[in-house]
Design a protein that fits this description.
The complex is a heterodimer. By secondary structure, chain A is of the alpha/beta class. Chain A is built from 13 helices and nine strands. Chain A has one domain: TIM Barrel, CATH 3.20.20. The N and C termini of chain B lie far apart (about 65 Å). Classes of the chains: A alpha/beta, B alpha/beta.
């Protein structure tokens, strides 16, 4: 049924949904820090996407690509504005699948290898064409997993089941206010890795005054219960953040800071290399 | 791990599909008997809780505290007492003698615009502010479009004793300057929202974003019958006082139930509370009136039932104005309170089972209805319920002499700047 089995793209034959992501993060961790960069698809221009992916590929454990949505409730100002620009540019999920299919073909025909591709976006853009169609198109475009911040565990079973039919994983998020027992349930349900939101806040936010987080203890408590790698995201901006969090997390996700840098014309690959190594 | 009826049945699509709805009578029975909203906060397929993980604890606690409060006689007594002495309930009902004659029907008005602060919004604001005391939160945030919910929340916070912050689209801050001043005078901080479309929708986005930074110390006092469960149910519960009073008043004053009841629907808070008084009366036709704006073109109206399809916005699965790619559409209405691309999930359910019929009134028809109500009844109605009045006028042509009841959910003083712009008097 799945197109993936026909095309021989990365999901075909995966042991379990998201396994390629977990594997890539663990492999990167043995070499140094595992960084998962986030970019917004279609920002700053539609034409920029393939170049951004190619430039990030050598340095990224996996690449998270944001699918722009008109009402991004979990995002701070940087990604809100990038999303707005991307939508105005004409970015859509269908367009993104086409772009990714082309990139996967390029890699399959002797081009540089791509790390696992994960899409992050809001539920409405994913469900709008039906779940079976979503799962097939994602698999055909070589997408390894989805991250959907407005899909909590209680609402996720149907979508997860649909994605699993074509070997695509669903990454779940935990937050600093998630009780321990619930965090264990979420970790058990998460494919590829467990996304540890580091602040009570939106993407790119500083620490919340009301919710104090001790990152080390928080990450260690998640590692103790998670069968998949734990990656830290939200508010991770600098090499110092990467080094500090990598002590306890398996990987780190850098989003708003990278999107902001891209907006300022900084080379994405150079930015991520700077997170991995001392200059 | 959680599982759902959908996956047990082997059809993952069922989580986001309206095809699983049963016989309309049975489905309505589930609503009236309290089986909906179900454990997942769904009304049939509609509703649910689509929020970031950081908010799950807060909305779960809110549901638990609300359920406990609703069976606690002390809470009921406090709410009833404050409704009486502070809001001025029960609000009256009257026969609209002039409009009845003019339009050839027997028209009755539920005078909800006489509630304290001038609109039905106060019912929910007071109720949730009293709940917030039981939640033990330190502060309250709210969103507002036209400013009525913001004013009601600011007033309730002043009365009950909470610091209050109101998010309001920058465009609405400008359009509704008098209400901004009222909120500030009542002690609220008003935060202009410059993101998104700078109207109600962007204000809700922003309030949700800020709630995430302090989910347990802050209560988000959502004003419409939208959002993640338990909000649509909470708002309906606090607004159902309108329908309960109206039904009893009709029986007492008119000696009969109306043939049809009408209310304006944006997110749908006044309508859902009003309709609940009549859902079980199968002989009463129920009409929700959406904002038809200036035309049926995309972006020129806010008629979600007429032009939308199911989708997820602001935490619930409901009918939604959106493009093919699932981006939420821009909307227009002369009424800021109806200028919203979604609608409450319970309305989507009532639409799907056919119990409520959703019709439209245009900006122009609405302005005519405002003037008619002023001249014939001596009442300046808000633009929102004037949509319902306009729909009665349209309905009257095919139903001469029949009895109609409208929820006049707000007074029109706030709309004077808009009326002066669009329909100035010489």
């Amino acid at each position: 049924m799945s197109n993936a089995s026909v095309t021989g793209l990365p999901n075909a034959g995966s042991a379990s949904p998201g396994a390629s992501i977990a594997q890539a993060i663990r492999a990167a961790r043995t070499r140094g820090h595992a960084v998962v960069p986030f970019i917004t698809a279609g920002y700053p221009t539609l034409a920029a996407l393939p170049g951004l992916v190619r430039s990030l590929a050598p340095h990224a454990a996996a690449i998270e690509i944001g699918v722009p949505f008109s009402d991004p409730m979990a995002d701070g100002v940087t990604i809100q504005q990038a999303s707005r620009t991307a939508i105005a540019n004409g970015a859509s999920l269908g367009w993104l699948f086409e772009q990714l299919t082309a990139l996967q073909c390029e890699a399959a025909s002797g081009g540089p290898a791509l790390p696992p591709i994960i899409l992050m976006g809001y539920l409405n853009t994913f469900i709008t064409g039906g779940l079976a169609s979503l799962a097939e198109r994602a698999a055909a475009a070589g997408v390894a997993g989805l991250i959907i911040p407005d899909l909590p565990l209680e609402e996720s079973a149907g979508l997860r089941a649909a994605l699993h039919r074509t070997g695509v994983g669903l990454v779940q998020l935990v937050s600093p206010v998630t009780p321990p027992e619930r965090a264990a349930k979420i970790a058990a349900a998460s494919d590829g890795f467990l996304y540890a939101v580091m602040v009570a806040g939106v993407t790119g936010a500083g620490a919340s005054e009301a919710v104090q987080v001790e990152p080390g203890a928080y990450l260690r408590s998640l590692k103790a219960v998670s069968p998949v790698p734990v990656c830290a995201g939200f508010g991770v901006r600098t090499r110092a953040d990467v080094v500090r969090l990598s002590g306890d997390a398996d990987g780190v996700i850098v989003g708003s800071a990278l999107v902001q840098a891209i907006g300022e014309g900084v080379d994405a690959g150079v930015f991520v290399r700077g997170l991995l190594h001392d200059r | 791990m959680s599982s759902t009826a959908a996956t047990k049945a082997g059809n993952p699509e069922a989580d986001f599909s309206v095809s699983g709805l049963g016989n309309p009578q049975e489905e309505l029975g589930k609503l009236l008997s309290g089986q909906y909203p179900d454990a997942r906060g769904r009304y049939g397929p509609f509703g649910g809780r689509f929020v970031p993980e950081t908010l799950m604890g807060a909305i779960t606690r809110l549901e638990e505290v609300a359920k406990a409060a609703f069976v606690d006689p002390a809470f009921a007594a406090e709410l009833r007492d404050q409704q009486r002495v502070w809001i001025g309930r029960p609000t009256p009902m009257m026969r609209a003698e002039g409009l009845s004659k003019e339009w050839g029907v027997d028209l009755w008005l539920k005078r909800e615009e006489l509630a304290h602060t001038g609109a039905h919004k106060i019912n929910n604001a007071l109720g949730q502010a009293l709940l917030a005391k039981r939640l033990g939160v330190k502060r309250i945030i709210a969103e507002t479009g036209a400013g009525q919910h913001g004013v009601a929340t600011a007033a309730a916070c002043a009365r009950v004793g909470f610091p209050c912050r109101v998010y309001m689209g920058a465009q609405d801050v400008e359009r509704q300057a008098p209400n901004v001043q009222r909120m500030k005078r009542l002690g609220a901080e008003v935060v202009p929202v410059t993101s998104g479309d700078q109207t109600l929708r962007a204000a809700i986005d922003e309030a949700l974003r800020h709630w995430v930074s302090d989910p347990m110390g802050t209560h988000y006092l959502l004003g419409s019958a939208v959002g993640p469960h338990p909000f649509p149910w909470l708002v309906r519960t606090f607004q159902s006082v309108i329908g309960t009073e109206a039904r009893a008043q009709m029986l007492q004053q008119a000696g009969r139930l109306p043939d049809a009841v009408f209310a304006a629907v944006g997110g749908g808070s006044n309508a859902i509370g009003f309709f609940h008084g009549f859902l079980g009366d199968s002989q009463v036709q129920i009409l929700g009136v959406e904002a038809g704006g200036t035309s049926d073109e995309p972006g020129m109206h806010s008629a979600t039932m007429a032009h939308g399809r199911p989708g997820v916005l602001h935490g619930c699965y409901s009918m939604l104005l959106q493009d093919e790619a699932g981006q939420v559409a821009d909307t227009h209405s002369i009424s800021a309170g109806l200028d919203y691309p979604g609608v409450g999930p319970e309305h989507a359910f009532l639409h799907a089972i056919g119990r409520v019929k959703y019709v439209r009134a245009t900006d122009a028809q609405t302005l005519e209805a405002v003037n008619a109500c002023c001249r014939h009844e001596g009442i300046l109605p808000a633009l929102e319920p004037s949509h319902a009045l306009a729909a009665v006028r349209n309905w009257a042509k095919a139903n001469p002499g029949k009895t109609a009841l409208v929820n006049l959910c707000g007074r029109g003083d706030k709309d004077m700047p808009i009326l002066m712009k669009h329909a100035p008097m010489a």
